[in-house]
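Amino Acid Chain and Its Fold in Token Form
===========================================
Purpose: to set a sequence beside its fold so the mapping can be learned.
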Amino acid sequence: MSALPARHVLVVDDDPAVRQLVEEYLGQNAFRVSGCAGSAELMQVFGRDVVDLVLLDLRLRGEDGMQVLRQLRAESQIPVIILTGVSEEADRVMGLELGADDYLTKPFSPRELLARIRTVLRRAHAGQDAHGAPVVRAYRIPGWELNLRTRKLTARGGGDVALSNGEFNLLAALLASANRVVSRDQLIEMSRRYDNEVYDRAIDVQILRLRRKIERNPAEPEIIVTERGVGYRLAVPVEPVY
């Protein structure tokens, strides 16, 4: 069995020395690290990679770090550790109220940073692992990738496709079931793990909307196919991304 890919930490800090310190130390401890100086680069990384945790400086040059944190929380549930100055208690309190998972004050010890990252990732994954199975971060099918952290559907050629909560839940449930036939009742139960409900009468409507977004010809679906009298299944290979 092949080894799981390294956890990916994204460092958002306009100080190159901080980014280099984090990249070198975490790299020595089996993490993959990307660095960027602001929100524009952050969203570019989100668009092309699966990110496990964001390390965010709240005092970015020319940007409001709080607004970046709000944007992160509006679009994903990716764990966030904020960086603040020793005297910036108000920033730490507000950051935690906005949904940050932890904070670290500058200057910080790389060893403490590593410990906090590991703790936050364990907490984020608590209850998601089943019998030791790794947590799936995204699913790939021909032409598409669904990121479970950011809740984004991205075309392989680039560009995001907007999904409603119900559409995301339903597609995630279908992907998790791979090529098995799934009944409407099963889809309802499976979708609840993503924290939103899909109701029986809405299933067929949601399937129709998904087909319009991901099928070349929604009238002759090749990805989500109907098993008459039973339910639905994905008729394409599904690749989990861990």
